[in-house]
Specification:
The complex is a heterodimer of chains A (126) and B (208). Chain A has 126 residues and is of the alpha+beta class. Helices cover 22% and strands 28% of the residues of chain A. In chain B, strands 3, 4, 5 and 6 form a four-stranded antiparallel sheet that branches. Classes of the chains: A alpha+beta (126), B alpha+beta (208).
Amino acid sequence: MSILGPGLGGGHGFLQGRHGLIADQFISMNLVRADGSINTIDHTSDLWWAMQGAGHNFGIVTSVTSKIYDAEYPNWAYQSFIFTGKDVEGLYGAINDNLLKNGTQPVDIMGSTRSFLTAPISIPRT
Amino acid sequence: MFFILQEGAEAVDEKYTAPFTALGPVVSQAGAGDYTQIPEWTGNALDSLPCQKSGLVNTRFPIDLKTYNTKAQREVYDLFASTLREIPALNGSLFLFEGYPLQGVQAIPSDSTAYPFRDNHLLVAPLIIYKSDGDELEKQARELGESLRQKLFDASGMSELDTYVNYAFGDETVKNWYGSEEWRQVKLRELKDKYDPNRKFSFYAPIA
């Protein structure tokens, strides 16, 4: 999966707490427009605003110049939990109270659930 | 499966894990490694099931939320589980509830880009997965996805349905995809009229 496809519609990522969306990193892009012309556009173009979130409506992006970052903290830890259906209310209440906290989730934390009926899609490898 | 990821740690801090351990999970696993291993831990790696080119239909019905409504979570869980049991052709489906950190996204002023949902906190989507098998199954898949989303929206207290465009099913409105504020819609239409008056680039979630 590319970063440019999602980037034209915003683009969430694990480090968005630090650096923002994929689209927030774009500096300039080469765009093939509807009339067949190709231009390099950046923040000085009136189109720039729209490319960061609705970009797929305006042309074909053939390349992009983007900010990139050294990983300040390359090491990560995870803990996964498998719950059964009886724990639904408890789980989401706990996420609200301990992680989400009205939108003040810590910058270094990500918390997600994936529900499925049968066996897990993959077992995390330790 | 619920997972917590913590950046820059050898183990997730107990202050985060303790409330979940207290609920009595069936299984819990922990580990640590490099940023590049995150997809393995979360089932999104290149060799994970959802990323295989297996010819399956993958449809999503996204909704942004600000918080979890535990009653609605119970309703959607029950509907998801019961429907998957009743219609085995849908039982490879997933339901994703993603809680990304927000600070970097919110540091950018909301009106400075077309991305409309910097103030939302959760990215939620049923991922209805099935092998294509006629119109009836397709209808059932879509009804399930839409029902789940509708239940969450009804309980959310939000005045507008906000749907992350990259996950969109396709039947949402332009306000759902690009924001309900009228100035956003006006600005996008003006730019569309200027740069693509003949609507050549209207394949996906078109502004017009």
